Amino acid sequence: MAARKQGVLVMDYGTPRTLDEVPDYYTHIRHGHAPSREQLDELVGRYQAIGGRSPLGDISTRQAEGIGRAINGGVEGPVKVYLGHKHVAPFIEDAVARMQDEGVEEAVALVLAPHYSRMSVGDYFARVRERLGEGGPVVRFVESWYQEPDFVRFVADRVKRAMSSFPAEQRDDVRVVFSAHSLPVKALQGDPYPDQLHHSGDLIAKEAGLRHWLFAWQSAGRTDAEWIGPDVRDVIKDLRREGHENILVCPVGFVADHLEVLYDLDIEAQALARDLDVRLQRTESPNDDERFTALLADVVRRRFGEPS
Predict the structure, then answer these.
(1) Domain spans of the chain?
(2) Does the pTM of the predicted model rise above 0.85?
(3) Can you name the CATH fold of 6-145+289-304?
(4) In the prediction, which pLDDT does 3 show?
(5) Block means of pLDDT (10 residues each) for the chain, length 308 residues?
(6) CATH for the stretch 149-282
């Protein structure tokens, strides 16, 4: 009996490729409601500050390609990887349609985000299910992968490497701040996202042998709703008031360089740190590191072998 045709659906948030695409991207995020001129100018200004575009699109493509190479043993193989974005083309729905058109019979769906939230990862999965309707393929979903031992070790190694950049005599003062994207408090009632993030920080801190660490949130939306905190900038201020002059931020909720890392941390938080006379460092993002894409490929392989 011939093996069933397999595919991997890799999903991420998406990003505009040029400044001209920002209005459509922002409108899509706002469920079809165009942003005000002030809102649009602010977002465009942020992209301009990081060089005119985010590298996220290119990085996500390389991450998906790396997963494919690892799954297929380093060569073009029978398991095809499809990449779908939430807010730009090719959309998640487009990727699902391609899988169907190309006869994929079973697939594993993986979001390039380690932690589960109904508002983020759950919404990606809902889009897949809605597009599938009653048609194939059979899809197995990876809800979260932050507890993967290889991922914990990978991030811990990045933390230890970044810690080594501080002068030896200052390392006892370094406070490590794990961060992730904030979400509205109301949307998180009964959601595992906050607990998973705190657990993630604890696992990495233990693996890295950290003595001092804490958790913060970043990149809250500009809405009237209350967003989960404390904000990473407030934590930096608090640590400085306590007398600490060395801070390492590990944005564990993100796996690629993009606006929330390159602007919110590398520009905005760094400016605050300079004003406070604080030495602020950041861990290197996983991006398309082969070790990182290989561990994601292992997650996918195991999920193929589990019940749908």
Answers:
(1) 6-145+289-304, 149-282
(2) yes
(3) Rossmann fold (3.40.50)
(4) 72
(5) 82 97 96 96 97 97 97 80 98 97 95 97 97 87 98 98 96 96 94 97 98 96 90 98 98 98 98 98 98 98 83
(6) 3.40.50.1400
Measured in degrees and rounded to the nearest 5, phi and psi for residue 224 equal -80, -15
Asked, colleague to colleague, whether 6-145+289-304 and 149-282 share their fold, the answer is yes
